[in-house]
Amino acid sequence: MDAANFLYHTPYGPIYGLIGTMGLQRLVLPDPDSPIRPYLLHSRPNHLLGRRLHALLEQYFAGVVTDFDEIPLETCGTAFQESVWQAVRAVPYGITVSYRDLAQSVSGANAARVVGQALKRNPVPIVVPCHRVISASGGMGGFSAPIFWKKLLLDLEQGARNLKTGQNQES
Fold first, then answer.
1. Which residues pair with 97 in a beta bridge?
2. What's the rounded Cα separation, in Å, for the pair 165 and 171?
3. C-alpha span between 132 and 150 (Å, rounded)
4. Is 76 a catalytic residue?
5. Cβ atoms of 5 and 19 closer than 8 Å
6. Backbone angles phi, psi at 14, to 5 degrees
7. Axis crossing angle, helix 99-107 with helix 79-89, rounded to the nearest 10
8. The one catalytic residue among 128, 130, 133, 152
């Protein structure tokens, strides 16, 4: 990501985003092993969307059940990728599905690997909650951001962690 016009701070580093005139185009979760420093633009074509996204992330990271469906997307995937991303938006907070089950719902075929590849290219993690998709055996599978985020987000949705503070709930 070369430029961003959205910034949200977490205990794990800054989340950068790019908001277009029609919706959210990109959201990048920080990777401590490979930090990015995009040029932060001071203008945003859609101020209201940025404020709403920030408020929803605040709720989400505080452990409040949050629905990001009101955030419009302006992504540029293939027709198949867009259908996978739309399908995974329907997976409720705190629930996981397998790549195989998601593939069945999207294409009616045994296309778990292709679905996994589409999710790997998800440009807006959290808003399109690809972290809720796991392997049929219960393993983590892959992720479109650093893999530790997948575990953190799943823990958050199971009530085990508050990501605003970075602390385990039992602490």
1. 133
2. 11
3. 8
4. no
5. yes
6. -80, 140
7. 120
8. 130
